[in-house]
Amino acid sequence: MRKNSIKNTRINMEVQRELSEIIRTQVKDPGLKGVMVSVTDVEVTPDLKYCKAYISVLGDREKQQAVIDGLKRAVGFIRRELARRVNLRNTPEITFVPDQSIEYGVRMTRMIDDVTKDLRDREEEEGESE
Length: 130
What we know:
The protein is of the alpha+beta class. It has helices at about 5-25, 60-75, 75-85, 100-130; strands spanning about 35-45, 50-55, 95-100.
């Protein structure tokens, strides 16, 4: 099975959906209390042995690290629940990775807005001086 095959894509989507549901409803770790956590992407290897789950957390870096630590403590429970819910030949070993893409996108948008604002201000100054 190739990495980007249709079967692998379907497995990734199913694992992502189930991981999101398990984390949202069944994980009771104190590090996850009152924090908005979402699974933004999942990459399962073609041999179904390993899985990278990208986690996005609403909050600062300390909250994000607390959530990742909580998920690492609960990885055995999460893996067992995933095995119960998804019928795969092997249940992958899960690695939780913080997802920085949303934060990066917000930072880039802010930078673009700053540049366009500066350009508009210059154009207005040049228009007034004429």
